[in-house]
Amino acid sequence: MIITKSWLNEWIDLSAISTDKLVKTLNSIGLEVDSVSTYEIPQKIVFGRVVECVKHPEADKLNICKVDVGTATHQIVCGASNVRAGLDVVVATVGAVMPDGMVIKPVKLRGVESEGMICSSREIGLGDVQDGIIELDSSIGKYSIGQEISTNSIFSDDIIEIELTANRGDCLSIRGIARDLSAAFDKPLRERNTKESEEKRVGIGRILTLSHENNLDVNIRYKAVDLKNLDLPFIVKLRLTQIEDKKESDVESLMLYATHSSGVILRAYSFGFFCAQNETMAKASLCRDENGFASIMAKDKKASIVGIIQENDSKVAYNEGTVLIEATYIPPNVISKKMQEKKISAGSMYYRASRGSEPDLNQGLDYCISVIESNSDSLVFGGTIEVGEPHEDKMISVSKKEIDEIIGANIDKAKITKILKNLGFNTTKSSAESFVISVPKFRHDISNRQDIVEEIVRLVGIDNIPSKPFTFTEDNGLGDDYFRYKKRQTYRHKAAYSGFFESIHFVFDEKRVLEEFGFETIDENKELLNPIVNTLDTLRSTLLTGLLKAASNNSKNGYSSVKLFEVGSVFNSQREESLKMAILFCGDRESDGLSNSGKPLKADFAFFTKKVSDIIGAFELSAFETKHTLSHPFQSAKILICGEVVGELFRVHPSVEDSYDLDITYMCELDFEKLPCSLKTAKQTSKYQASFRDLSIVMPKEMSYAKVKSVIDSSATKELVRFYPVDKYSDELLGDNMSLSIRFVLQSFDKTLEEDDITKSMDSVLNALKNELGLGIR
Predict the structure, then answer these.
(1) What DSSP element (H or E) covers 622?
(2) Around 727, how many Cα atoms within 13 Å sit in the side-chain half-sphere?
(3) What is the CATH number of domain 45-156?
(4) DSSP assignment of 136-180
């Protein structure tokens, strides 16, 4: 993006600000300056006026001119085709040293004295502004004949090139840059909207009609001008040279100039392109073309694609006659997405449209019209014809506390408000503690509170925020889905390592079988409407029936030992989903071989419990009667981990084993969500030797071990690390009682336990058992 200081000055007063300060400010607010260059017009080059111009008698291409340079009138021979009397020009007087090193001296050209040189733009270092010599006009501001041109701001300008990031489409214009500088310098932006008098003006509706389709995401406005004596001013030609862009016609050049200055995308159309032969009413339509782009059409001819390209036939190549001036805005995300899909050829304006042009169409049109009226006798038609899509401002809420926390400093609320206001944000709905910010339409890059804070920081200046140590802790990027997946994988692998094979079934089951065994089934009004087959006519409420069928199939195929598990979804009567894990062990503990003389032991309750523990870790069992009829009435228990019930464990009822042709079978079903899957925490262990003591307690056969355990837990000293039953015995002498041997493990963190310490701990347990349960040692 190329700007000049004098051009910026049209939109914001920079007269008291040096170029060096301007460049530093641009860099500090995130508009990185790539290069700076300054015009250095040599001394003794002044403004002059051609008061007389006659042909050279000895050369057809030379003219003898009388030129007023303020202090005197000099005779200068000039070969430019555009020199004429009455023209204000740039004159290099005698003694001037030109940029290419040439020294101006009095000379004779074909026998005629010449004192000085009437200069072209290239000769004074401005580039190819126009053909021939410079033709000055009022566009460069006030000047006097004889004044050195280096004192004029247009001829002593600074050209600044800014490297814009792709998201700052709002700064692809002089006005956009000035808007950011307005906030940086706290200076008002010079708005150039004009109020036109509609009196005695022919309305645009007399010569133009516009039909349109709806929902095109386009804002578009038209003005009409009857061009007369249009003369492109010198400053427009100079600045187009400075930004290294030119157009073939004056009208096209004027559109480019106004677009670069205001940020509004402007196009000029030939009036005749939209008129049928012998008609005076132009008829245009806005519709979708064959590729889905919003296009301007004249009957069956395409004039342009909005924001992308204009057809050459519709462009203006004349300086006299009626032209239609169009201002358009299309959201950058809309046009960019469409171009990615279709990839059609684009014109120079697509770059602006795809990054976000200026949506305030009126100010762009007004700027363009004011330039035309100032440099021609043109007649502007009254009013506009326009089509627009409604726009709802994006609202962002952020508290003052959040802003300070993100920045790491306390910024005055009034200062924040002023910055946001100068940048075009609306904060009128804000409260004392928070900001409610309306994002202007031209700021396409602002979407969240972090973007708002970034705007504040770049205008406050990063160097003006005190530095302080900052602790950065990165959040764990792994979400709940990953941990659920990881937990499932962990338990599946543990089951496989323990010798079990994974069995996977449909989430469907046979409702008749579930009801037969007493399992919950889906409510009728939520049942499957179109089951796959009759044997899969409902959602399963348990994994157990599926594992039984799989075990039965394996047993019928000759397997004497079947070890299966499954982790899968089940559903309650309301079709609410949960995750379960089921484990099955059927038949022999191991394969037959030498070690077991070909007669391996069958699985039993204790063995299966140990296998389950290998998979899910330590747990406790408690007496439990299942709600279904799959289980053996005297071999079932509920599984507890840290006092919470996580599932059930049982032997399959013998009648069920027979019906499925199974050997002795054990199963358990667990609530998978309740199974532990946390990081293992290391605990301190004692460095002193542990001691073991066995006690054989006489207790009634019908008394549960849970009662004994509860009493021992409540009476245990700190030296009692753990205890567990190791044997039980009964005979005729004991009658209805039995002897239960319990092993106690004792250990201290402070010392090796002595016999007195051990005896004291054992006495505490025995006294509690005697006092609370009436039990004693054998």
Answers:
(1) strand 620-623
(2) 8
(3) 2.40.50.140
(4) --GGG----TT-BGGGSTTTT-EEEEEE--TT-GGGSSHHHHHHH
This prediction has a pTM of: 0.61
Instruction: Spell 69-100 as b/e; 16+ CB within 10 A means b.
Output: bbeebbebbbebeebeeebbbbbbbeebebee
Q: Are 48 and 91 in contact (CB under 8 A)?
A: yes
User: Contact 271/207 with Cβ under 8 angstroms?
Assistant: yes
**SS3 state of residue 308:** coil
**Rounded CA gap, 770 and 762, in Å?**
12
Integer Cα distance of 543 and 669 in angstroms: 7
Weakest mean pLDDT among 142-146, 404-408, 666-670: 404-408
CA distance 427 to 120: 52
pLDDT in tens, 237-276: 999 998 888 788 889 999 999 999 999 999 999 998 998 7
Top-level class of domain 480-674: alpha beta
Residue length of the chain: 778
According to CATH, the topology of domain 691-777 is: Alpha-Beta Plaits (3.30.70)
- Compute the C-alpha angle 116/148/56, nearest 5°: 25
Among 720, 724, 705, 727, which Cα is nearest to 764's?
720
What gap in Å lies between CA 575 and CA 568, rounded to an integer?
A: 15
Same topology, domains 2-39+159-185 and 691-777? Answer is no
CATH number for 2-39+159-185: choose from 1.10.287.130, 1.10.10.60, 3.40.50.720, 3.30.56.10: 3.30.56.10
Distances (CA, A) of 317 to 202, 249, 441, 591: 24, 6, 34, 98
How far apart CA 436 and CA 52 sit, in angstroms, is: 67
Helix (H, G, I), strand (E, B) or coil at 14: coil
